[in-house]
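Reply to dn_fold:

You asked what the input looked like. This is it:
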Amino acid sequence: QDHDPLSFGLRLGMDVLSVTEINDLSFARSLVNDPAVQYAAFRSQNTVGGQFNLIGYSYGSGVVASSAWAIAQNGGRVDNLVLIGAPINQDLYDAVRQSPNIKNVIIVNLQQYGDPIRAGMSDWSIVSTLPTLRDQMPRNAGHFYYSGTGAQADARRAQLATDLYNRGVR
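and this is what came back:
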């Protein structure tokens, strides 16, 4: 797929910069009194016979990590918090791992595919990955290993689902 290099680079740059607004404990704290988070905490306490799981990939992992911590602060329970290619800061990473109401934190780093992103990075380190991400995105490589369409992308995601199932995610 052809991309206009300037607009493609600007869009990706804005995505990388926007992640730094939602990837730390400060943002998670701002969610604690949110009615949707409080409702999620209530729902997680009343999940009969099932799991309350949150799964996020890339930007989404910052959102669900912050949400999981805020849910836990409201007395909610998260059975599995799955963070894939998680550009989250160390403070949020430590907070979700140490929360007694978040039972299982599964980090899926993609470094074996060349992803420069990992949980526990500083904002500056995340922003500095932009040139690598710009190269990887159109090829569905590295950080974007599980993105894309077609048989190969479907097989990658199916393998990820099997791996998560084997780790107890239902």
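The chain has a mean pLDDT of 94.
Hope that clears it up.
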